[in-house]
Amino acid sequence: MSEPIISEQGAQKKAKRRSAKAGLPPGTLVYIGARKTDHVRLTLIQYRDGFFKQQELKTIDEFLTIYTATESDVMTWLDIGGLHDVQLIEQIGTACQLHPLLLEDIVNTEQRPKREDYDSLLYVVVKMLCLGATRTEILAEQVSLVMGERLLLSFQENGTDVWAPIRDRLRTGKGRIAASGMDYLLYSLVDAVVDNYFAVLEFIGEQLEQIEDRLLTAPTPDSLRDLHVLKREMLFVRRATWPLREVLSGLGRGDSRLMTESTRLYMRDVYDHTVQVIDTLETLRETVAEMLDLYLSSMSNRVAAVMKVLTIITTIFMPLSFIAGVYGMNFRHMPGLDSRWGYPVVVACMVAIGLLMIVLFRKKRWL
Amino acid sequence: MSEPIISEQGAQKKAKRRSAKAGLPPGTLVYIGARKTDHVRLTLIQYRDGFFKQQELKTIDEFLTIYTATESDVMTWLDIGGLHDVQLIEQIGTACQLHPLLLEDIVNTEQRPKREDYDSLLYVVVKMLCLGATRTEILAEQVSLVMGERLLLSFQENGTDVWAPIRDRLRTGKGRIAASGMDYLLYSLVDAVVDNYFAVLEFIGEQLEQIEDRLLTAPTPDSLRDLHVLKREMLFVRRATWPLREVLSGLGRGDSRLMTESTRLYMRDVYDHTVQVIDTLETLRETVAEMLDLYLSSMSNRVAAVMKVLTIITTIFMPLSFIAGVYGMNFRHMPGLDSRWGYPVVVACMVAIGLLMIVLFRKKRWL
Amino acid sequence: MSEPIISEQGAQKKAKRRSAKAGLPPGTLVYIGARKTDHVRLTLIQYRDGFFKQQELKTIDEFLTIYTATESDVMTWLDIGGLHDVQLIEQIGTACQLHPLLLEDIVNTEQRPKREDYDSLLYVVVKMLCLGATRTEILAEQVSLVMGERLLLSFQENGTDVWAPIRDRLRTGKGRIAASGMDYLLYSLVDAVVDNYFAVLEFIGEQLEQIEDRLLTAPTPDSLRDLHVLKREMLFVRRATWPLREVLSGLGRGDSRLMTESTRLYMRDVYDHTVQVIDTLETLRETVAEMLDLYLSSMSNRVAAVMKVLTIITTIFMPLSFIAGVYGMNFRHMPGLDSRWGYPVVVACMVAIGLLMIVLFRKKRWL
Amino acid sequence: MSEPIISEQGAQKKAKRRSAKAGLPPGTLVYIGARKTDHVRLTLIQYRDGFFKQQELKTIDEFLTIYTATESDVMTWLDIGGLHDVQLIEQIGTACQLHPLLLEDIVNTEQRPKREDYDSLLYVVVKMLCLGATRTEILAEQVSLVMGERLLLSFQENGTDVWAPIRDRLRTGKGRIAASGMDYLLYSLVDAVVDNYFAVLEFIGEQLEQIEDRLLTAPTPDSLRDLHVLKREMLFVRRATWPLREVLSGLGRGDSRLMTESTRLYMRDVYDHTVQVIDTLETLRETVAEMLDLYLSSMSNRVAAVMKVLTIITTIFMPLSFIAGVYGMNFRHMPGLDSRWGYPVVVACMVAIGLLMIVLFRKKRWL
Amino acid sequence: MSEPIISEQGAQKKAKRRSAKAGLPPGTLVYIGARKTDHVRLTLIQYRDGFFKQQELKTIDEFLTIYTATESDVMTWLDIGGLHDVQLIEQIGTACQLHPLLLEDIVNTEQRPKREDYDSLLYVVVKMLCLGATRTEILAEQVSLVMGERLLLSFQENGTDVWAPIRDRLRTGKGRIAASGMDYLLYSLVDAVVDNYFAVLEFIGEQLEQIEDRLLTAPTPDSLRDLHVLKREMLFVRRATWPLREVLSGLGRGDSRLMTESTRLYMRDVYDHTVQVIDTLETLRETVAEMLDLYLSSMSNRVAAVMKVLTIITTIFMPLSFIAGVYGMNFRHMPGLDSRWGYPVVVACMVAIGLLMIVLFRKKRWL
Fold first, then answer.
1. What is the reported pLDDT for D17?
2. Which helix (H) or strand (E) holds E143?
3. Are C238 and C317 within 8 A, CB to CB?
4. Which residue of B25, B328, C322, D280 has the fewest C-beta atoms within 10 A of its own C-beta?
5. What is the pLDDT of residue B79?
6. How far apart are the C-alpha atoms of D124 and D118, rounded to whole Å?
7. What values do phi and psi take at E38, rounded to 5?
8. Alpha carbons C199 and D16: distance in angstroms, whole number
9. B313 vs A308: CB contact, 8 Å cut-off?
10. For residues E158 and E81, is the Cβ–Cβ distance under 8 A?
11. Number of C-alpha atoms within 13 angstroms, CB side, residue D262?
């Protein structure tokens, strides 16, 4: 099994980077994470029922010029791909009047999924998990969504694009999405992220099946290691899903003023999907636990099998060797040594004893 | 043990199919699951106290014609057997004005049991578990129940019919059912589903007893595998029951406007049955855990027994072989070799040592 | 240890019988359980301060005649011993206007302890556990108590009489009981049931001590099996006690109109006893877990001990046998073979090596 | 390790004694427990700011006489040492108008720590744990505190006096205690009891350290048994502390009318101490679990070490013995037997093989 | 691995010191803990927007003189470094009118993190964890923060200074801090403490990686011990973090009058960090658990490997030695002994049998 690499590495690595922030005043933007893309991509989409426009921007000023000139019934979605350019993030923050702590959270890519209500904004952090192009690794990145009444900002760490279908739907004007408000777009983005979790679970499930096959045919210590790698991946998915569940539960209940009643129904639907992901995850965890059991028991069965062979060999040959040893003693006066039939009789006895042992082992089901 | 096949397979399989939905707009109907029946069966039952009529329909139009012509005090129950014909489901949705998300849930057969309140509708999802005709496998399918004031739609994946007794009671007008409203029919359907859980538990219990018998007489690694199969089945039942418990608790408490007070009492009764199922399940789980313990301990006892044999053989024959070896040395001057009694005395010593060992082992309770 | 038999057997058995009900309309009375007594016993007790009358009745009509003629300040307690006569139960139900579901619960002897409030009735189910006459088995049966304002019905599965002291107190008029209302009688009955739990725990504790003694002196696989039997018994007591705790907590809090304030104080007292039972049970469970640990560790100590013997024997005799083997080679030119001192020197060497080994093992504390 | 004896023995013993009460009417006083002191000690203390008087009483009448003659601003504390004289307890109950159930709880020394509010009384049960005079055993007894507006009754099982410092403070009038009300005295008594828990934890911690030392140097099965003894002691402390926490939380929150606001602050302080005790206990529990792990792993390391010795010996000597055996065969025509160099060459080969083996084992780190 | 020493040692040590307080009246100040610094350092900082003054004080009188002369819009922060001088603490208590219990809590350095609201004061206890200068040990100390409207007292056990950056920010007037109230300073201090937790986690994570490397290359019992040391450290961090989470949750929710709304937002941010610490900790715990699994399984793999070698050697040489033994018997009439080809044939047979065995083992994958 090629060890799948989750881009956002294990806990040790994280803590290391995180400690770089100690001592800095709150609101200082420090990008914690590897630089995942060279160039920060700014994609601006504006839409209304029957209207759609997509542009790649270069600077924040460009965005400001366009945004201030936008009619009030047009929805604006700015997708920022890449978080390492801290100055740019700060410019966006100033332009859109975001709270310093909110900006700090956006670039701190080790956030747990969470929701925060600012006065006229809704801030949602989710973890995007998807399979790489070769389908042999799980890509993980943090996605921050900031929603206002007419504006939605989405911050990604790099360019994994799971939102292409949503842009298509906006462009073609199919479905409810183009005719709905900002909250429905937020729902669609989160829904697309959660939908990809199923693909990741499927990937983990496939690997689990492969390991299971190997465990049943030829258990090796490597299988154990692979199981532990899988376990960590599942732990990672779990940590992404559990807090998300609460976030979605809150959005579905309607704690926020910015969510309309009809979108809440859809949010509850994503919530149901998250619960389904958690359920599947728990089942996978149980399966992994069972496999560990199976592995350990098959290992100890192997030891038992080796023991049996050892015991059988010893039990058969020790008495025979002893008899040979007895007739190898150099006493002058030993009955039978001079007899013609001495040797054949003793050898016959040996064969008989050997066979007897084998019959005994058969009976005890050791052979 | 013939491995019982739960029709709705393990978690890995599910996730795979589920991921096919990624990228599609919400409300898109995709039937996730194997096509379990060729032909979608539409059974229409209409009843009132003293009146009963059952028809097999071909199309939804037929249903609409009949339904609109129905008197207002007649109860209508449409049972849809088969979910793969997505267009038909959509037609039903349009005819009965069902929410797109509700329809999506109906065909997504990996739903957890849940309840949802739409304005004038109550939507309940339960998992039907029953034994196959040969009583060697557990059949699982998702059942969706949509209840209005005078209409109840029941969606099944295939044709397992556990509701025949209810139709009989409606036909004969026996019991409260014919004279009661839609909510009592809903109760009866759920009750019939839960009643079948007991048969499934009984089946699992029987298999557990068989495994236990084998464990006590001749424990093999296969027993372990069978236990794990049982464990998964129990996990499956558990996942069907736990959320159902909450659904029924809510219906019994009376959160819904569509449930009458008297039916709530009955709902609380089904709730009690569900708790009983969970209780039995927990007991079975404890039993499985105990058996795993027993298996492991009997396995390690076997190893210990093998060790003992090995040690006994070694301990008896090593000293004897050594003595034989000593008298097999080729020194010219060795006392006793030329003596007449040398050989008998040494052999006697050997026998004595061997017997002493055996006595010692007896004392130590190794023999 | 004679395996204690809990009359109401394990979970598998139960589910089997329970599934017989599938398909029957709710309210159909099916007695689930073994027929534990031939004849249904009807004991009528009527009392008031200073007045006491006990009669054995034959029919329900007899009861009705007496009951309707009873003065309004006389308390009536009808004790029904035996549930298999479903018709009789139905007659009682009709006579006392009990809800069909309540009757169904009474004969369904696999109920969990629970409380239900009907309009003018309080329905309580508890599990009676007591030791058999020979004090070697635990008897279990379901007890249903239906309390009205002036009437209390108690349903037992068979004739285990733990309520004799209460009847005595009623007869002699000692204590508060005769002067109090129906609710105090209910309390007294439940209190008597809970008091017997302590005897059962004591019985389990004694058996645990016996097993512990055997584990410390001569651990056998049988001890393990006995421990598991005990564990199941404790699980059974646990399942009887935990729900009871909630029932009593509710009665003590005073959710029910039929409980007077002063009796609630007594109910809280029984509640405390139940908590004490649960506490003791948890302690016993911990003890069982410890013993399993001890058993496993003593088992593996045994294997280790066997290993040591094996290793010691091998380590001492292998080198000695090798030396003997060397001098048993048939080379013509071997130094020492012809010498007078060859044999004694070699034997002395052997003895020295053997002693050295023993000293070494002493040092390593293997001997 | 001398097994520390907790006076109030394990669960089995308790249940036995407790079952003696079955069948008795509620409110019947049965002293459950060993008779821990011969003579019931009645110590009366009366105090007010600047006034203190301590008397040993003989009878309850004496107390009544004094108490009724007491001025209304004098606080009265009656400490009863010994509970076996049930009649005396009953007299106190009558004199102070205590509820029969309260009296029953006082003599039932297997109560869990709890609090009960009677109309004008507050009843608190705590477990006193302290070290014996020799500091080698943990003494446990139940302490019941009944507090009225001007009267506090404290019931102890025997004479362990942890309250001497409090009496001293009352006598000398130091601190807040003499000038405060009954509730502050209650606080002081409970505080003194909880303070002693730390000494008990310290004792357990010391023993744990001793066992750890032994485990690291010479692990024996006895260490395991000692660990289990410690575990039971900790379980005992735990059962005394957890319910106490809730009791104190309630008193600190101010559910009771008899607690003044300022004393509640102090109660919250004892509550903090209890939480600290629980914390320490949990840490100790983790330590015990770790030691069990260490023990088991060191045990299995020992087995592995023994195995290695066995394998090394076998692997070195078996091939050598085989070579010796080959040259011990009696074939007439064997090359080398007659040669002058046969013997030395073969012996040299043997030595070479032996050394090779040792080098190999060194490489594999077995030596 | 050099065992990292957490200054505040394990639970046993603590309890010992704590028990010294038994019997003393509440409010008696007893410093529990090692004397960590010789001299008590008193650092006074006074600031306002644009104004900053830092002084080292000698006595409390000095402080009082300055404080009373301070203008009402100047914030005062007194940092007390060292708690062993109980008299000084008492003087501060008197000067600032602190409750005796509060003072007791300050010097009792085994407090759990907690928050307490006194009338005009907010009292917060946190555990400061940081790495020592050599980055090889974790330093732990208790920090008590007492906040009034214009005054903040911070009590440290010794001089670990994690607050230098905050003083710098105050001095330079950078950020919000100088312009904000006391509550923002409180937030900054707590934030600095929590930020250091990440460094500690990073340290633990690094050690974990080192142990993991060693486990994969050469597992020794020492690795196990190191894992347990790490586990204790993590337990320690956990005990510092969990209660802190609740403290911060309360401060973020705004239970306290002294916290302004804007600072609460920041408090929720620290709360998020604490949750992140807990998350990382749980991941580390899972990793440790996995490593224990890996260690145990690699250990048992070693035993299995040893067993295999033993069995292979035995299985190959026992039959060969037996054959040699047979031809070493001294029968006069044995076929082949006198033959020229006897010896070569037998040796060839032996070699053949040996090779056969090896082939067999290859097939069984034992070689």
1. 59
2. strand E138-147
3. no
4. B25
5. 92
6. 11
7. -75, -45
8. 7
9. no
10. yes
11. 10
Q: What ipTM did this prediction achieve?
A: 0.74
Closest to D309 (Cβ–Cβ): which among C276, C311, C365?
A: C311
3-class secondary structure, C221: helix
- Secondary structure (3-state) at A62: helix
Interface test with D, best of C329, C334, C353, C366 (most D CBs within 10 A): C329
User: pTM of this prediction?
Assistant: 0.80
CA dihedral E320, E321, E324, E326 (to 10 degrees): -100
**D41: which strand partners?**
D81
Over the stretch B100-154, which tens digit does the pLDDT of each residue have?
888 988 888 888 899 988 878 999 999 998 887 777 788 888 999 999 988 999 9
| Partners of D139 in beta bridges | D130
Give the pLDDT confidence score for residue A37 in this predicted structure: 58
C-alpha distances (whole Å) from B223 to each of A142, B234, B285 are 46, 16, 16
What integer pLDDT is reported at residue A309 of this predicted model?
83
The answer to whether residues A96 and A103 touch, using CB atoms and an 8 Å cutoff, is: no
Among A169, A176, A198, beta carbon nearest to B15:
A198
Greatest Cα-to-Cα distance within chain C, rounded to the nearest angstrom: 123
Question: Are A205 and B11 in contact (CB < 8 Å)?
Answer: yes
Helix axes B11-18, A182-217, angle to 10 degrees: 140
**Tens digits of residue pLDDT in D254-277:** 777 888 888 888 999 899 999 999
CB within 8 Å: E350 and D326: yes
- How would you label D74-93 residue by residue, b for 16+ Cβ within 10 Å and e otherwise? ebbbbbbbbbbbeebbbbbb
Which amino acid appears at position A181 of this protein? G
Q: What is the dihedral of CA C166, C172, C173, C177, to 10 degrees?
A: -10
Cβ-defined contact of B23 to A276 (cutoff 8 Å): no
Touching chains, C (3+ CB pairs < 8 A):
B, D
Query: Which residues pair with residue B52 across a beta bridge?
Result: B47
Measure C105 CA to nearest chain D CA, in Å. 28
| Position D125 pLDDT exceeds 90 | yes
> Which positions in chain C touch B365 (Cβ < 8 Å)?
218
D309: chain C residues, CB-CB within 8 Å: 311, 315
Chain centroid to CA B103: how far? 27
Burial class (CB in 10 A: 0-12, 13-18, 19+), C271: buried
CB distance C142 to C105 below 8 Å: no
Alpha carbons within 13 A on the beta-carbon side of D361:
20
- Scored b (16 or more CB within 10 A) or e, E224-233 reads bbbbbbbbbb
DSSP 3-state assignment of C51? strand
- Partners of D246 on chain C (C-beta within 8 Å) are none
Q: List CB contacts of C79: < 8 A, sequence separation 6 or more.
A: C41, C42, C43, C44, C45, C154, C156, C163
All residues at 6 or more sequence positions from A165 whose CB lies less than 8 Å from its CB, including other chains: A192, B23, B24, B25
Which residue of chain E comes nearest to D330, CA vs CA?
E328
What radius of gyration, in Å, describes the C-alpha atoms of chain A?
34
Range in B16-20, B325-329, D10-14 the model is least confident about: D10-14
8 Å CB contact of A19 and E199:
yes
Cα torsion D325, D327, D330, D335 to 10°: value is: 150
Whole-number Å distance between alpha carbons of A29 and A88: 11
The token pair that represents A204 in the structure block: 């983990």
Task: Identify the residue with better confidence: B337 or E143.
Answer: E143
Q: Minimal CA–CA distance to B89: which of B130, B42, B135, B125? A: B42
